[in-house]
Write a structure and sequence with these properties.
Blueprint lengths: L3 H10 L2 H7 L1 E4 L10 H11 L5 E3 L4 H14 L7 E4 L12 H6 L4 H16 L4 E2 L23 H16 L12 E5 L18 H8 L1 H8 L4 E4 L3 E2 L2 E2 L4 H11 L5 E3 L7 H5 L5 H11 L4 E2 L3 H11 L5 H17 L19 H14 L1 E5 L12 E5 L15 H6 L5 H8 L4 E5 L12 H9 L3 E7 L20 H10 L4 E6 L15 E4 L7 H10 L65 E3 L3 E2 L3 E2 L1 H5 L4 E9 L5 E11 L10 E10 L4 E8 L1 H4 L1 E2 L7 E2 L3 E8 L7 E6 L1
Parallel strand pairs: 1-2, 1-10, 2-3, 3-4, 5-6, 6-9, 12-13, 12-14, 14-15, 15-16, 19-27
Antiparallel strand pairs: 7-8, 11-16, 17-20, 18-20, 20-23, 21-22, 21-26, 24-25, 26-27
Helix pairs in contact: 1-14, 2-13, 6-7, 6-15, 7-9, 12-13, 15-20, 17-20
Length: about 725
């Protein structure tokens, strides 16, 4: 292995205290430089003594170089620090939130985000991005759904690999790359009730089939680091979970990188009731596979005594230190600990803004378009743009660097439409505040609507109520926004609702009154331009939902890849009582996973198989089956369609989901154009993990339905016999 001789040499020279110091990460006061007082003095002192391995939240070339000089030039061994930061969907150039990126059904969007973000961050002294978050979740109440790729493990896995590639490139030591961090390991997205940090009780087979695939994809893509999750997993905190951190991640998957705790996650094992005191928390964390402790100091404070008393193996300590040193060597920090201050990127460029704009438009999902209300009539002379987010810059989304939010706010929708439609008169009225307050502005919004040829209502939730520690019990529009929509509907002027949000929202009673609905998510720095691109037809919508949109919070969890019951609902017998249904809601979601409209029309042919039967043993040995469909643009405009492949194993030793996404391809076609889209099904697509903790994957004989279409509700199918 590369670097191993250097690692052994350093380990031989280090004291026990210096070893534990490498396992400690402390927080910085954002971009304040050394000498800023209490906010930075602990990190400075530890770095000077060689008792610190990493710092988070320090950035800016000058600030990071100043702190790095203390570690490299004043500590005994001169081991450089590694600087980490939550670079979630942009550094200076804010891309759409990760959930929105998943809606593009195009992993290249995430890879581009990673490339741009890595270049900007590394030039400012950041070596390590605490992303991608690859947690699969079926919980829209959970605020961190905004950081996820949604409810499907295959989609999340494809995006995990893409973001890792974007961040890390081919050479981590390059000045344009940062180390990726797959988080939160594991099952964080399964928190009960959607309450952040809450309990997760999950079977081994559900863990392996639903929650772990994106993490395995991150390992396979070369992710340099992992972060442990805040939650318990079947009663064991993830920060002390040997089965996950060591047995699965390090042994079964062969991961040789760093596992970092989440913020104070080691110390919180005491609060969980799993560790009696901080010393035991440190022992459990390091012993189970945590290699670096973020912010809390349980390992560093008690490590020497744990070693002396025999409660911690010296081999585990050396392994953890070796992993931290290996990361620093891979990043090239021993050779180039500093960044050139005159080369630090200080703002988005024209090119990065263009990339963010293209990404944002690519991520938007058209949910309704009655009577071709969109694109807007180019002859419209007056357009009213109303709602709390019509002229708001608060469209960047959760997890944005404070300096970025202040210096580089989002383009507003009003600005975007004025730029896109210079010949039109754009009227604006806020109507109501986003989260409630005065309703006096509704009259002004109604007056604007009455004077307009078309109305665009920009409604939704502010980024402050999505993201971490932002669980919502009600997923409707906050405040009085539904009253505003009702008042606009009463004017009789056709209107489009543009939803900006960090999660799927319950659309409620206003859906029928809107002519069109566009899910724009939190689109990032070029929000207004991208929304205008879609509304005017300069760009055709082609996004698809990466999450199911519920009719009501009472339906949650509702997701496409469910298991069938012994008494499933049958739409042909809606009055049947003893079936799995709600008495007060129609069956199914408001909008299903994979759904999204276009400004043109597409058809897909029934799927065709390269062979109708295949041996299970042959699949396990590497054989595959090709699936082909013909996609045709039957409409009058060029457009994008996402062809989706699903499988269903009809009878298995563990009940299988009614659909499992196993392939997708986003295709652009001109009117009348056709193309063949091909997928390959392998053992990975047709098999599943059993409940064996040792990790047993099987492909069983039987009939497998193969579906191809443009959403998870497609009925076009054929059957593959696995013998």
């Amino acid at each position: 292995m590369p670097y191993e001789d250097r690692i052994r040499e350093l380990l031989g020279r280090m004291t026990v205290e210096e070893k534990f110091g490498q396992l400690q990460q402390l927080a910085w006061a954002w971009d304040t430089g050394p000498g800023a007082g209490a906010a930075t003095e602990d990190a400075e002192a530890a770095a000077r003594k060689g008792l610190l391995g990493s710092v988070l939240n320090v950035f800016g070339a000058a600030s990071s170089n100043a702190l790095q000089r203390i570690a490299v030039e004043e500590s005994r061994l001169g081991i450089p620090l590694v600087f980490g930061l939550d670079v979630i969907h942009g550094y200076w150039t804010t891309f759409p939130i990760p959930l929105a990126q998943a809606a593009a059904f195009d992993p290249a969007v995430a890879e581009t985000d990673g490339v741009v973000s890595a270049r900007e961050a590394r030039s400012n002294g950041v070596h390590w991005a605490f992303a991608p978050m690859v947690d699969v979740t079926r919980e829209p109440r959970w605020g961190r759904v905004a950081e996820s790729s949604g409810e499907d493990p295959y989609l999340a896995a494809r995006y995990a690999a893409a973001k890792v590639r974007g961040f890390q490139g081919d050479d981590l030591a390059s000045q344009g790359q940062v180390a990726a961090c797959a988080k939160h390991f594991a099952a964080y997205g399964g928190a009960e009730g959607g309450r952040d940090y809450n309990t997760v009780d999950v079977s081994e087979q559900r863990l392996r089939n639903l929650y772990l695939p994106p993490f395995k994809a991150a390992v396979d893509a070369g992710a340099a680091t992992f972060m442990a999750a805040f939650n318990t997993v079947s009663g064991i905190p993830a920060h002390g979970n040997t089965h996950l951190l060591t047995d699965v991640l390090k042994k079964e998957w062969g991961f040789d990188g760093v596992v970092v705790s989440d913020w104070a996650g080691v110390a919180e094992m005491v609060v969980h009731g799993y560790a009696a005191d901080p010393a035991e928390a440190g022992r459990l964390a390091l012993g189970s596979g945590i290699d670096m402790e973020m912010v809390s100091t349980s390992i560093a404070d008690h490590g020497r005594e744990l070693l002396r008393s025999g409660r911690l193996a010296p081999e585990r300590l050396d392994d953890a230190v070796a992993r931290v040193l290996r990361l620093k060597l891979r990043l090239g920090l021993f050779e180039r600990p500093y960044v050139p201050e005159d080369a630090a990127l200080s703002a988005p460029t024209e090119a990065t803004r263009a990339a963010a704009r293209e990404a944002a438009a690519r991520c938007m999902v058209l949910l309704k378009n009655e009577n071709a209300a969109l694109p807007l009539d180019p002859g419209a002379r007056t357009i009213a743009v109303v709602g709390p987010f019509a002229d708001s810059v608060d469209l960047l989304g959760t997890w944005v660097i404070p300096d970025t939010r202040q210096r580089f706010p989002a383009v507003t929708v009003v600005e975007g439409l004025k730029s896109a439609l210079p010949q039109a008169r754009i009227l604006h009225a806020q109507g109501v505040p986003a989260e409630g307050g005065s309703r006096a502005g509704i009259a002004e919004a109604v007056a604007a609507a009455g004077a307009a040829d078309a109305v665009v209502v920009v409604a939704g939730e502010p980024p402050a109520i999505s993201g971490e520690a932002a669980t919502r019990a009600d997923l409707g529009l906050p405040g009085d926004q539904e009253e505003l929509i009702a008042a606009i509907a009463a004017t009789g002027t056709p209107f489009t609702v543009v939803l900006v949000a960090g999660r799927p929202l319950t659309i409620g009673g206003w859906l029928d009154s809107a002519a069109a609905v566009l899910m724009a998510w939190h689109p990032g720095i070029e929000a207004g331009h991208a929304v205008a691109d879609i509304l005017t037809g300069a760009v055709g919508p082609g996004g698809k939902l990466p999450v199911t949109v519920p009719r009501s919070v009472g339906q949650i969890p509702v997701y496409y890849n469910r298991e069938t019951t012994g008494r499933p609902y049958d739409a042909s017998r809606p009055d049947e009582k003893y079936v799995s249904k709600y008495l007060d809601l129609p069956d199914g979601p408001q909008f299903p996973f994979g759904f999204g409209l276009s400004y043109t029309d597409f058809t897909t042919s029934d799927p065709r198989l390269s062979r109708s039967a295949i041996d299970a043993a042959a699949l396990m040995a590497g054989a595959s089956v090709e699936v082909t469909t013909t996609l045709t643009n039957t409409g009058g405009r060029p457009g994008d369609e996402v062809v989706q492949l699903y499988v269903h194993d009809r009878a298995a030793s563990i009940v299988q989901p009614v659909r499992r996404l196993r392939g997708f391809e986003r295709v652009r076609l001109t009117p009348g154009e056709s193309t063949e889209v091909r997928f390959h099904l392998t053992a990975e697509d047709l098999g599943f993990w059993t409940g064996d903790p040792a990790g047993v994957f099987v492909v069983e004989p039987g009939a497998v339905d193969v579906y191809v279409g443009t959403s998870s509700l497609t009925r076009s199918r054929c059957t593959l016999d696995v013998t």
